[in-house]
Amino acid sequence: MYYTYEEVDRLINEDMPLFDLTQQLLDIKEKGKITFISRKNCIVTANALIEKLAEKLELKVVFKEKDGRFVEAGNKLFEAEGENVLILWKVAQNIYEYALSVSTYVYEMTAKARKHNPDIEILTTRKVIPYTKKIALQAVIDGGGLPHRVTTTETILIFENYISLYGGWDKFYKNFDKLKSKSIEKKWVVEAKDLNHSKKLIEIGIDVLQLDKLDIETTKEIVKLAHEKNIKVISAGGININNVEEYAKAGVDSIVTTAPYFAKGADVKVIITP
Q: Where is the Quinolinate phosphoribosyl transferase C-terminal domain (predicted)?
């Protein structure tokens, strides 16, 4: 993930727009060493961004754990030294405690799902907390997942709301072959409402069925019908680490979820020494 220096500056300015009043009153001018330690097992993420923050603050990076690596509680994530360690402190800690929660949740959710379906993928929605997209998506990738959609520009995903303005499902069924010929390099993903709707979409030859909030038994039936025609199936809507195994057992090819973005925050200890 590429971060511009403008983005790095914005992160710093949000926390310290002018100066650190406490540091000024204590007249602290000494250099220091800052160490970030995870208090829980986690999947490392955000270190590429933390390193760029450190460079911007003219700190020397002493240690950087590799993003995507599993580390046990008590291990170092990152260490740097120089004059501006107090500025890095809370900016980096806030990033870590959000990003690590996302990466670790995705990792654990994937592990649960793959106990029953070793080829299943965990995909995250574009419903990220505003202004956290890059941090969140990098955390998803480091946790072993992938974004379902990054923007509306690069993928085709048909929802009921599009069809209501397009002119209805019958018009869509009639024109599907022509529509598909306009974008032969793209997959057509369509959200199905129920079993009968799924059957019709399978009949016209869509590429991927997305099932939103359908029960497990209906999902199993649709998966069987779709796979007979080499059509992939995604389950979405309310799926999280507590129920992902049931959907994995149903045989779907991918799970779409928003849950990782709202996982309980990680716990990162920060030690600053002279």
A: 102-259
Using one digit for the tens of pLDDT, what is the confidence trace for 62-106? 999 999 999 999 999 999 999 999 999 999 999 999 999 999 999
d(CA 32, CA 98): 25
Q: Which residue has the tokens 């990076």?
A: 61
Stronger pLDDT, 165 or 154, i.e. the higher one:
165
Rounded CA separation 66/242 (Å): 29
Q: Which of 245, 244, 210, 208 is nearest to 229 (CA)?
A: 208
β-strands 60-64, 121-124 pairing: unpaired
* Class (C level, CATH) for 5-109+263-273: alpha beta
* 5-109+263-273 and 115-261 share one fold: no
Do residues 148 and 125 touch, judged by C-beta distance below 8 A? yes
CATH number belonging to domain 115-261: 3.20.20.70
| Percent of the chain residues topping a pLDDT of 70 | 100
Would you report the helix, strand and coil content of the chain in percent, each value rounded to 5? Answer: 45, 20, 35
Q: What order do you get walking across the sheet with 254-257 strand by strand?
A: 146-147, 121-124, 254-257, 232-236, 208-212, 188-192, 156-158
263: how many CB neighbours lie within 10 A of its CB? 20
Q: Please report the beta strands in 94-228, taking only residues with DSSP state E, as ranges in sequence order.
A: 121-124, 146-147, 156-158, 188-192, 208-212
- Summarize pLDDT for 169-187 with one digit per residue, the tens: 999 999 999 999 999 999 9
Does the global pTM surpass 0.90?
yes
Q: Which two tokens stand for residue 215?
A: 């029960």
* Domain residue extents for the chain: 5-109+263-273, 115-261
79 has which bridge partners?
Answer: 35, 63
